Amino acid sequence: MKKYRYRIRFYDRVGMVRDISDIVAKCGANILSLSVRPGEIYLQVEPLHEEKLRFIIQKVALIQDVYEVTPIEWMPHELAEQQLRNVINSVQEGIISVNGNFVITICNLRATELLGLEQPPVGKPLSDVFEIPAEILKHLQEGKLLEQKEISISTPRGRLKLMINSRPVFDDRGKPSGAVMSFQKMSEVRRLAHSLTRPVMVTFDDIIYESNKMKEIVEIAKTIAQGDSTVLLRGESGTGKELFARAIHMASPRKDRPFVAVNCAAIPDTLLESELFGYADGTFTGARKGGRQGLFEFAHHGTIFLDEIGEIPPYVQAKLLRVLQEGSVRRLGEMEETRVDVRVIAATNRPLEEMIVRGDFRQDLFYRLNVIPIYLPPLREHKKDITVLVDYFINKFNQRFGKKVQGISPEALDYLMRYDWPGNIRELENVMERAMNLARDFIIKPQDIIINAPDFLASSSEKYFHLKDAVRETEKETLIRALSQGGSARKAAKILGVSHTTVIKKIKKYGLSL
């Protein structure tokens, strides 16, 4: 089929456009498009009979100073529009351009897909496509820049959360004459943020062991990693619960999605709910403008690790139970719920069964969490692994400290094997780090192993040279007694009459564990 488009080349002179237009008009044809460049004219005429079209082109070719007339596929502006369309359709963001009356002039394929439409809504009012939030409408009307605004809109496929940006377009007088908006699904924004910021993850190959007991546990963990069921990791502090949680995530189909680790004991009660589930704009004093998504939303399609799950207060337990049952979260201050696809891995060193009897932990939540329980034994129950762990820590600290320690003496290793390790692998790592700093030779010797720090001061009566040392030691001992009596950071805070946050800071200050 003929396109009726031609490129006319000529030696530039005045009146060439007029001469061409006269010939076309005298032949009774209409010019649909005309583009002029130095030495070139691009001509598109209406569809004509072939003989009439040939006659017109022959007459144009005979015009003085014309030296070439060539049929072409596209007019320059058509080619530019096609290239622009290809560019905006190739990006991963949805793009919509509107004029001053908020009528859509451009809509790329990604925007059409995100909005659940069958074809681009070009020529339709923006308000007919989706409900414009008042704040965004105001920015469009006033010609203001809008950056990274989270909105929720209704589409034929249901509610959709988007991250939107908008840049105004101005006319020659500097007045707003439209805008170009770009937007992404919040789940894609979270995935991008995760890909740019995620730490190096560990795998099961990074778990150091030699004993059959640990081998059985690792094999079980590898098997259950392929599913989506909730996992409850149990064991004393320092047994590697977070290490296993990360390894399970990396062995699962979710490995390329976010892994969000939450220490439930380290977040104050007043903030825990908003951190986990998010909040709407203006929910409370100090809330971020526009609201904030919670960690469950950030972990969408990934894994959330709830460490020290036994520290969650009852009212948050109820909301967590609903997330596990319904697969959706509701931000503080919002009525609508957001679907989340998150695998939950929880961990605790607390006796949850006893807490249920005391009324401190919900029984129904326990059953939801305890779908796949994995017990990580204390180091004293698999001392065979101490040897390989020691070798691992020697290599690790050699690299960190730039040392060349080659191993550990049999006497020093025997000393480690006879100790019960109440702090488990974490305590062993601390002891090995101390030994690597003290080692003067290429072999760690018994005198380099300091498990219980010696009293460098002469006697208990002469132990403290400064008042601040005495205060520090007294505070530490009081904190230990409160933790022992209460069994948790929150209970210890009540016993001591201080805030939960203060107790957490003191625990970290003195290197204690629950």
Short description:
By secondary structure, the chain is of the alpha/beta class. It is 41% helix and 20% strand.
Number of strands: 20
Query: Termini, distance in Å?
Result: 81 Å
Largest sheet: 5 strands, antiparallel
Low-confidence stretches: 453-465
Strand content: 15-25%
Q: How would you write the strand order of the largest sheet?
A: 6-5-9-8-7
**Mean pLDDT level:** 84
Structural category is alpha/beta
Helix share of residues?
A: 40-55%
What is the radius of gyration? Answer: 35 Å
The 3D shape can be described as elongated
Number of helices: 20
Structure description:
There is one protein chain. This protein is an alpha/beta fold and 514 residues long. It contains 20 helices and 20 strands. The strands form six sheets. The chain has a five-stranded antiparallel beta sheet. The longest helix is centred in the C-terminal third of the chain and has 20 residues, at 467-486. The protein starts with a strand and ends in a 5-residue tail after the last helix. The relative contact order is 0.07. Mean pLDDT is 84; it is low at 453-465.
